[in-house]
Amino acid sequence: MPSDCLFCRIIAGQLPASQVYSDDSVVAIRDIAPQAPTHILLLSRKHIASVADVGEKDRDLLGKILAVGAELAAREGVATDGYRLVVNTGRNGGQTVDHLHVHLLGGRPMAWPPG
Ligand code: 5GP
Ligand code: ZN
């Protein structure tokens, strides 16, 4: 675990977070600066810098994270009206934390294209 990685430290319990889900490969927390009524971050337990760094043996993890996102959207009560799963990747993609995560945003209408 990279000791300087914010999300690794949250997963390790070294920094506080509002955790809403945890299993052997995925941890979900509420975003500290929510951009929608529901804003959850789905983190891979394993440190992987971004979706661009997912290797062959971790591909199943991507499907797993999306499936957990759909499950949590239903649990949060935002699934019927719709929601968005977002993976910011790299500088132009707006990624600010270099640890694989998917945003679950819901509870309000979303615009397209994104900013
Ligand atoms: P990114 O910009 O990399 O796609 O997403 C990083 C997200 O992490 C941002 O939405 C930001 O608000 C959130 N974030 C940054 N620091 C913390 C923190 O300490 N705790 C939590 N729960 N979220 C954080
Ligand atoms: Zn990490």
Give a verbal description of the structure.
- This protein has 115 residues and is α+β, with helices and mostly antiparallel strands.
- The chain has a single domain (6-106), classed as HIT-like (HIT family, subunit A, 2-Layer Sandwich), CATH 3.30.428.
- It contains three helices and five strands; from the N terminus they run αβββαβαβ.
- The chain has helices spanning 6-11, 59-76, 90-93; strands spanning 19-22, 26-30, 38-44, 83-86, 101-106.
- Strands 1-2-3-5-4 form a five-stranded antiparallel beta sheet, with helices on one face.
- Strand 1 and strand 2 (26-30) form a beta hairpin.
- It is globular and about 35 Å long.
- The model has no long low-confidence stretch (mean pLDDT 97).
- The protein binds guanosine-5'-monophosphate and zinc ion.
Fill in the keyword field for this structure.
3 helices; 5 strands; binds guanosine-5'-monophosphate; five-stranded antiparallel beta sheet; binds zinc ion; single chain; 23% strand; 24% helix; globular; HIT family, subunit A; 115 residues; alpha+beta
Number of helices: 3
Oligomer classification: single chain
Please report the total strand number as a whole number: 5
CATH class category name: Alpha Beta
Q: What is the succession of H and E elements?
A: HEEEHEHE
The domain tally reads 1
Tell me the span between the first and last alpha carbons.
32 Å
- The helix content is 10-25%
Structural class: alpha+beta
Concise summary:
With 115 residues, this protein is of the alpha+beta class. Helix content is 24%, strand content 23%.
